[in-house]
């Protein structure tokens, strides 16, 4: 294959060739990345982007891959997984985390410093970068309420600081989605509180999550956004689709808004099941179920 050998150019960075992304995604599905890099700091991320731009390699950024379906044909060019860029610091009432830091760990740092406001995210299994990108939220809270600023790398390779007004947060939306920026760090503004009470709230939310969500099986969280005036899970249940199996994928019997991988599912199984659900709900209720999960990569060239 005629391709710049980025792995040779950066011997100090872990870079794998033709690496199946199924090894990293929460659904345990997805085809290979031509190159899969694990930068450990901002400078490495910046250098990799500059090199890829120079060589005209497409670049895809992935966090914890908990809201992602990678098609079975995989991703051409360079994929960067940022989870090794994961420092978390805290001063005053703020917590600053690198993009690859676990959101759950970041909420634990806030709790340890008796800072309140981040409890809602105690069980969201994403990275900080993915959470800002998605404006992740749960139990009445969302990232927009705590995000103060973020350092981003623009597609042209410049580092910029985004302030609160520039995020353009909406329901599962931020300006990062519109400009293809890479989040490098994010700073969250919190409020002094009581460490034990914060922990108690986090424990309660996590218990509620474990009771309702199929955390014991691979999934990608809520597949669909909540349509106005409806509950996705209820629509799917009422259409008789809960428990439906499609290849190795199944509409979760515990929470109909989730699709779980029960038997070596492929991304194609997931995508066909998603399309089937959308078609049935449209036919029955004239409601369009828009995907919340991000779907990237290429179709497979041959079908199984
Ligand atoms: C069991 C389970 C429960 C979940 N519960 C919730 C919930 O309660 N609330 C909720 O909101 N979500 C939930 N999710 C979904 C998911 O955890 C969140 O959307 C999370 O914010 C995604 O972060 P990530 O790092 O995994 O992103 P990824 O899946 O890796 O990526 C998602 C998108 O963000 C982009 N991205 C990732 N990192 C960066 C970066 N540094 N810069 C720019 N773009 C980036 C990717 O390109 C991709 O388009 C759940 C998922 C699972 C599996």
From TrEMBL:
Supply the InterPro entries for this chain: FAD-bd_PCMH (IPR016166), FAD-bd_PCMH-like_sf (IPR036318), FAD-bd_PCMH_sub1 (IPR016167), FAD-bd_PCMH_sub2 (IPR016169), MurB (IPR003170), MurB_C (IPR011601), MurB_C_sf (IPR036635), Oxid_FAD_bind_N (IPR006094)
Q: What is its main location?
A: cytoplasm
FAD-binding PCMH-type domain residues are 28-193
Its UniProt pathway annotation is: Cell wall biogenesis; peptidoglycan biosynthesis
Question: Which keywords label this protein?
Answer: Cell cycle, Cell division, Cell shape, Cell wall biogenesis/degradation, Cytoplasm, FAD, Flavoprotein, NADP, Oxidoreductase, Peptidoglycan synthesis
Location of the active site:
172, 222, 292
Q: What is its EC number?
A: 1.3.1.98
Q: Which PANTHER family match?
A: UDP-N-ACETYLENOLPYRUVOYLGLUCOSAMINE REDUCTASE (PTHR21071)
This chain's function reads: Cell wall formation.
Give the UniProt family note: Belongs to the MurB family.
The name this protein carries in UniProt is: UDP-N-acetylenolpyruvoylglucosamine reductase
What organism does the record attribute this protein to? Levilactobacillus lanxiensis
């Amino acid at each position: 294959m005629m391709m710049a050998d980025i792995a040779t150019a950066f011997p100090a960075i872990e870079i794998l060739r033709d690496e199946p992304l199924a090894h990293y995604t929460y659904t345990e599905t997805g085809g290979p990345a031509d190159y899969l890099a694990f930068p450990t700091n901002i400078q490495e991320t910046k250098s990799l982007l500059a090199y890829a731009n120079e060589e005209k390699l497409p670049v895809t950024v992935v966090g914890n891959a908990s809201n992602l379906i990678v098609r079975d044909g995989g991703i051409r060019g360079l994929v960067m997984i940022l989870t090794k860029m994961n420092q978390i610091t805290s001063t005053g009432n703020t917590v600053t985390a690198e993009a690859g830091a676990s959101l759950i760990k970041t909420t634990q740092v806030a709790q340890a410093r008796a800072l309140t406001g981040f409890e809602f995210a105690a069980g969201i299994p994403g990275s900080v970068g993915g959470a800002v990108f998605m404006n992740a939220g749960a139990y009445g809270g969302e990232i927009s309420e705590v995000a103060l600023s973020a350092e981003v790398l623009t597609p042209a390779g410049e580092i910029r600081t985004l302030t609160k007004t520039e995020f353009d947060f909406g329901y599962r939306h931020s300006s990062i989605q519109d400009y293809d920026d890479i989040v490098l760090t994010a700073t969250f503004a919190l409020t002094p509180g009581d460490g034990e009470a914060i922990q108690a709230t986090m424990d309660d939310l996590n218990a509620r999550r474990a009771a309702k969500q199929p955390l014991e099986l691979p999934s990608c969280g809520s597949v669909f956004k909540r349509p106005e005036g409806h509950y996705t899970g209820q629509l799917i249940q009422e259409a008789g689709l809960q428990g439906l199996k499609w290849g190795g994928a199944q509409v979760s019997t515990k929470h109909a808004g989730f699709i779980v991988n029960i038997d070596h599912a492929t991304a194609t199984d997931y995508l066909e099941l998603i399309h089937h659900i959308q078609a049935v709900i449209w036919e029955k209720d004239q409601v369009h179920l828009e995907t919340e999960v991000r779907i990237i990569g290429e179709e497979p060239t041959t079908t199984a």
